[in-house]
User: What shape does this take?
Amino acid sequence: MPQIERVLLIFPPSTEAIGHPHECTHPLGIAYLGAVLKKDYNVKLLDATAEGHQTIEILKDGLLRYGLSDDEIKTRITDYSPNIVGITCLYSSQMPLVRNICQLAKEINPETITIIGGTHPSFLPKEVLREKSIDFIILGEGEDTLPNLLKRLERGQDFSDLDGMAFRSNSQFRVNPKKRYIEDLDRLPFPARELLTMEKYSKINLPMSVTCKSRYWAPIITSRGCSAKCIFCSSTTFWGNRYRARSAENVLDEIELLVRDYKIREIQFCDDNLILNKERAMDIFQGIIDRGLKIFWNTPNGIALWKLDEELLKLMKASGCYELTLAIESGDQEVLSKIIRKPLNLDRLESLTKSIKKLKIRTQSYFIVGFPGERKVEIHRTFSFARKLKLTSAAFFIANPLPGTKLYEICKERGYLKEGFDFETINFYKSNYETPEFTSRELENIRDREYFIFNLGLLFRNPFLFIQKTIFFLITNPLTSIEIFIYGGISFFKTVMQKIKN
Assistant: This one.
């Protein structure tokens, strides 16, 4: 192909369950790739979720789409006229939108090369390549593979041996497994945030944690991978079944840049396991203090609770931590250990959460119910455990069989998947399989009722915080607030009717 003059990297519109906040955070995946490519190419980043955040379309299966419309995306592609269009697919229900953008790019110019990446295509490359408008799939992390592919395409060289890539060859699907991973993450440049419209995120103000202490926040990732083998999660496999971390100095340099150049006041650590290496974590927190970085911070993606202790907590608080997301998953030890396979001992959580609250750190939390082999009594035990811990707030999800997970393999082997099951319509508040222990409808009703009751309970547990968060959210996100209010009303009505019925 001729010289590659322009590369367009796109984060597509997003999907969300109706009645839930429309999160909008910096797309670090394309920002990292943009930083790697910009030294050799003209690169443009398009965050279609942020740029068209108020444009909403109702989809099927209880989902909605928000972000730029197809016509607007087509106009952006036409105006830039890229040789390469790269699109990330963060989760399975985004895949139809990714597929559609590839089709739009080919309609504009059939010679445009389309390259996609992310979790869904990485685990289902052959299925995804059935869409002829998709030329290449980058499997797993792409900071090495993508530039190598572009160089070979530009020079007309063979690319068939590249690590971690899928493509078509003579009408056959070729998949080169991902074998080589970046061991020294410090060699990567910081995400190219200068190629994003940074003020959009402060204006929309819906980070992964949904609420925040400052409008001027930014997510960062200090490590890749996880040592746990939870059956519902594909992250461990996606990142190469190993844990790799940036040095504390490298992380602190990025935070300092964000504070200095973008006036950031809050950092959201989005690692799978920020504190897995305790010594490194303490160096980061102490470094925030020593460098005089006056920031707030939280962990919206969860934290390795089995590594958390009093010493860490005190340093976290001193360095600006105001909220920790506790990824507990289940309140039943048997389910946690034998079904989910998470290395967490529930016995120490009660004292741990007391220590967190004593330091006046908020506690968001994640729970998942409805695993194969989990009984109703164990599901109710999870809700009871959440109430016992007196957490600030909790998110209750329904277990869903994602691509690349052990959970999917189990459901498929046992014949639990619903007829017509489709990864691309997964909604974490709906059940996609049925087990001998419960039906989908039963599970959904239990989850909806408990979620509503628990989070409304914050009004009585901490009325000041409830009012503060509610007013802040109403002011910054009025349209989303109306949607959530309607959904909450429906959930309340269902709860009342269920109690009358029982």
Remarks:
- The mean pLDDT is 92.
- The chain has three domains: 6-176, 207-456, 463-502.
- Residues 463-502 form one domain.
